[in-house]
Amino acid sequence: MKGKIIRLAATAVTFLVLPTLLPQVEFTGGTMQLIALALLFGVVNAVIKPIAKLLAFPINMMTLGLFGLVINAALVLVVAWAADLLFDAGLVIGGFPPDGLSLEAILTAFIVGIVLTIVQTVAGLVARD
């Protein structure tokens, strides 16, 4: 249980710090939206990501695992869209969701996905359940 809380806190802090690192990422929500966003990201990673990885297994094998980055970027965009739809979190990634999907949103989602994966991995190594 302690590990899950540490990973949740690490994800929340990452979403808070990302706008300072990447000018294409905006977060205008408060503390409750930040916690809800981290929880939503955890639920998407726990429920949707394994299904997407299973369905994309042949493509992932052909690209030697690089298609996993596409899955991560898509899930980041899904989280931004769902957060905007469910609780108006104020998370905007490269102009998405308010301005629609664009190349800038996709490239920014790739970078955000990589950063979140690194943070989740480090938090998982630090706090094992």
Summary keywords:
two-stranded antiparallel ribbon, 74% helix
**Mean pLDDT over the residues:** 93
Count, helices: 5
Catalogue the unreliable spans.
none
The count of DSSP E runs of length 2 or more, i.e. the number of strands, is: 2
Helix content: over 70%
Gross morphology = globular
What is the strand arrangement across the widest sheet? 1-2
Outline the structure in words.
- The chain is mainly alpha-helical.
- The chain has one domain (2-126).
- The chain has 5 helices and 2 strands; from the N terminus they run αβαααβα.
- The protein has helices at 2-21, 31-55, 57-62, 67-87, 103-126, and strands spanning 25-27, 91-93.
- Strands 1-2 form a two-stranded antiparallel ribbon.
- Helix 1 (2-21) packs across helix 2 and helix 4 crosses helix 5 (103-126).
- It starts with a helix and ends with a helix.
Question: Short description, anyone?
Answer:
The chain is mainly alpha-helical and 129 residues long. Helices cover 74% and strands 5% of the residues.
